Amino acid sequence: MVPRRPILSLPIGLLFLLPALFFVAVFLVFPSLWVLWISLTNQALTGEAALRPQFVGLANFRYLFDPENWAVRGYFGNALRNSVLFVVGSGLIGQAGLGLAIAWAFHRRRGLLREVLYTLVILAWIIPDVVVAFMWVAYLDRDQGTLNALLSALGLGRVDWLIERPLLSVIIFNTWRGTAFSMLLFSSALAMLPPSYLEAAAVAGARPYQAFRDIILPSIRSHIVTDLILITLWTFNTFTPYLITGGGPTFRSEVVSIYTFRVAFQHFEFGRGAAVAVVMMLINLTLALAYLSTLRREARAR
Amino acid sequence: MTVIRYVLSRILFAGFAALVGAFFALPMLWLTLAPFNARGTLAVEIPRPFTLDNFQAVFANTFAVRALGNSLILAGGTMLVVTLAATLAAYALSRAEVPYYDLLTYGLILFSSVVTGTAAMVPIFLLANALGLVDTYVGVIMAFTGGLLPTAIFILRDFVEGLPRSYEESAMVCGASPWRMVWDVVMPLLRPGMMVVGIWAFVQVWGAFLIPFVLLRSPERMPAAIAIYSFYTEAGTPILTLTSAYALLYALPVLALYLFVNARYGFRFFGGIKR
């Protein structure tokens, strides 16, 4: 066999890569390295610390992890705790769980009902952030909101969702917002299963939940791992709860992304904001490496 | 026994489908009714009286209309830069023997998932500040382009890999320069892939809030995502008639693009297409 000559010579290839590499280097790679330096300074927006930021060592990180006020509302520990609850509640349980349930319920079903439901779930995913935020502020409103109207029609009391249960509200919101990804991923994973697997189980007299546990779950395990890692990564980094509760009241729904924003762009303490960004990127890095290693394992298994 | 089980499973399925439908549809109802209601309301109610005046009032507001134009500039600009740069890069990655290919692709995926808008808002703002790009369209477009390019390149690389090499080989035999070959042979064949990436990039920027919120200052450059927060009374309560009409107008292009993609290609999705 004649070895295939590459169609583009190396210099031309590099020339074609140049524009993309420029943008990625300047606006993705450089900021991620620069933020490491900023996190070690007292960089501010105005005054002396803006022009000549001073090196302050690990002071910003010590502030974040200061055990004295660590878990106090409005501090970093509180934001981290809220983020964990938010990721577990809305990402892992909400989006992945509901997405798998929908994909499983509509597995091998076609027709109008499926089309309508899938379209609704996808719409919730693609409508712009601020529009869904307004929809949910209206939906959860204490006096006029649709949810409370339904609850009181059922004889249950009204709840001032955004004031009394702010974190639960954004968790339910984010489940609604992002289930589509898991649903679509699991639907395509289930569609790739050979039908004979389930038929064999049915012949052997397996109940649906037994078939689900013993056949479906093991066969789509790698998809589940992929889904959980990506969902965790995205949910941890989302800023949309800010548009619904602003992180309040009294920081009760302040997740890490909102905390970064407040410290950097409302208090203008960029050094401290950069330190939060470094912690965020370390968490992201761990998740991304886990994701890439599962991808590699899959590629090797194939 | 099996009949009972069958009936039970049908009931269970119908109940589940109804709950899921209600969970996803109920929050959307408000946006389908409130824009046509002459009275501003957060409730879901039949518009009484039904009116289109809210839209007229929005169109009479020059600031609001200009903001939709700004969204178009930012989303369209990013779409063009991302699609062109990603096409060239994906083509080079597929057709030239790029050294450190594995390291390069690995690094691209890694950086694009680690450096998200929320993690990078501080350094991106300071970088734009240092380069004098705060409060410019160019700054916002470049910041988005850097973040979206890695994913765009990977989507397009799959499309390039699917092209038969014979077209390019014949073009080469006929003496076409590499640039002509890409422009006249490859790009027309890649149009579906470029369309997918372009629409994806457009929708990402059209709907984005945080980066323009951080990077832009002057009201006349604000995109719709931020301008929507300007329909407030002196007392600080939102004017719901205008806000809801504006929200619907602002969401329409995304809905139209979804319908278009769904009809044309089927709504397939690629790994990390939505972030």
UniProtKB/TrEMBL annotation, chain B:
GO terms for cellular component: plasma membrane. The chain crosses the membrane at residues 12-33, 72-93, 105-131, 137-156, 195-215, 235-261. Its main location: membrane. Keywords: Cell membrane, Membrane, Sugar transport, Transmembrane, Transmembrane helix, Transport. PROSITE patterns: ABC_TM1. Pfam families: BPD_transp_1. GO terms for biological process: transmembrane transport. Residues 68-261 form the ABC transmembrane type-1 domain. Belongs to the binding-protein-dependent transport system permease family. This is Multiple sugar transport system permease protein. It comes from Thermoflexus hugenholtzii JAD2.
